[in-house]
Amino acid sequence: MIKSFKQTFLSLDLQSPRWSSVEAMAKDYELRQYETAKWVSTVIRGETQKEAMRQGFWKLFHYIQGKNEKEVKIDMTVPVTCLVKSGCTDFKISFFVPFEHQDCPPQPTDSDVFIEERKAAALFVRSFGGFASPEKYAEEADALARTLRNRGQPFHEDFFYTAGYDSPFKLFNRHNEVWYFKK
């Protein structure tokens, strides 16, 4: 498993959901239009965000390593997302389902893992570098929310997504994002 873990995370050419840039606002944020896509997800309840990310990641990693009805290995994708709701200790961790499995993803055999379809949506995205902690994600989400409010942009304020694009083995030029859905 260690070999496959490293192989998975050292790949530099991982699939990600399709989107187009609608508007870029300097370095503050970007408005993107994401296409409808399937994601494999799990909800971790009653843990810290950091622990929920750890537990959720491994549940989803087991799914892509063959813990699914077809016992098929599935390529890793980016980003790994985490749904963060205000005042809530439930976190939904998700992997994008690769394009070759979008029409008919293998069903999970773990009852805590599920396939979901995220409808096309406009998202406000703020990007940042470095190693992202839950505190850093919250700080970046707060900065994005302040900017959006100041510019009169309507968005769903009661939740945001974190999006991580890099393997833990990547030390430099890391890419992270926070996402708010446009109203």
Structure description:
The chain has 183 residues and is α+β, with helices and mostly antiparallel strands. Helix content is 23%, strand content 33%. The chain has a 9-stranded antiparallel beta sheet with strand order 1-2-7-9-8-4-5-3-6, covered by helices on one side. Strand 1 and strand 2 form a beta hairpin. The relative contact order is 0.21. Mean pLDDT is 92; it is low at 1-11.
Structural class: alpha+beta
Elements, N to C (H/E): HEEEHEEEEHEE
Overall geometry comes to globular
Q: Measured on Cα atoms, how large is the radius of gyration?
A: 16 Å
Mean pLDDT: 92
**What oligomerization state is this entry in?**
single chain
Strand content: 25-35%
Distance between the termini: 43 Å
Fraction in helix: 10-25%
Q: Tally the helices: what do you get?
A: 3
Strand order of the largest sheet: 1-2-7-9-8-4-5-3-6
| Low-pLDDT runs | 1-11
Topology, number of strands: 9
Main sheet properties:
9 strands, antiparallel
